[in-house]
Amino acid sequence: MAAADDVVAEHPFVVAHRGASFDRPEHTLAAYDLALQEGADGVECDVRLTSDGHLVCVHDRRVDRTSTGAGLVSEMTLAQLQNFDYGSWHNGRPDGSPEAATPRGAGLLTLDALVAMVLDWHRPVKIFIETKHPVRYGALVERKLLVLLDRFGIASPASATRSRAVVMSFSAAAVWRVRRAAPMLPTVLLGSAARYLRGSAATTVGATAIGPSIATLREYPELVDHAAARGRSLYCWTVDRDEDVDFCQDVGVAWIATNQPARTKARLRAG
Description:
- GO terms for molecular function: phosphoric diester hydrolase activity.
- Pfam families: GDPD (PF03009).
- Residues 12-268 form the GP-PDE domain.
- It comes from Mycobacterium novum.
- With 271 residues, the chain is of the alpha/beta class.
- The protein has a single domain (4-270), classed as Phosphatidylinositol (PI) phosphodiesterase (TIM Barrel).
- It is 34% helix and 15% strand.
- It contains twelve helices and nine strands.
- The chain has helices spanning 4-9, 29-37, 78-81, 111-119, 140-151, 172-181, 193-197, 201-205, 214-219, 223-229, 242-251, 261-270, and strands at residues 13-17, 42-49, 55-57, 126-131, 165-169, 187-190, 209-211, 233-236, 255-258.
- Strands 1-2-4-5-6-7-8-9 form an eight-stranded parallel beta barrel, surrounded by six helices.
- Strand 8 (233-236), helix 11 and strand 9 form a beta-alpha-beta unit.
- The model is unreliable at 1-8 and 93-101 (pLDDT under 50).
């Protein structure tokens, strides 16, 4: 394993936010395949439970924005959700250019399929999994997630640095549930600066990292040192602009989530 100084020198590592979601529809195999090809160090996904207990990669409570269907994820079965198209809404890049027309691999993505894909890749890649709250199934989301990670053999890593999975949430209770059940699994407590600077939420729940937005970090760059002094790393989202990539590199962010992993990695190499 690399020495600590060597690891720090490589920061920031690049996490593909919902896959390479600028060029491909978010949370689809096409988006994650492109992110892996582009050299992302990690991939990020949001997970929700279907009515029949499957973890699927969908950000919103409803599928209306990102599919041809409508309704709450939690009220539909996996089979029902699989009837929708999750790629045609994207219609190429956000600027309207046609280069990224709806690709193959734009169906509903289950967490099982994503984890299998990442673990089968030819180099180690971390998967950052955000559990969404509040949801009707409450703690069942984390229980189902830990069972899935255990089935893949990645729920109990030898150390946080060697872990292939990281669990994140804006819910302190969700992070605590994961830390209590799988103490070696890295966790990120997402949230505002007040949660980190004036409160003790990250300490209370045992989070191994904090996760402010780029707007929050720009307002409070001291969060990097504040986290490091308490033995935590910092994960920042969502970092797409060149000036924000440069800023994260300058202040010592460990992991940056971006919709454009190839462009972001190229910018970091140039810096």
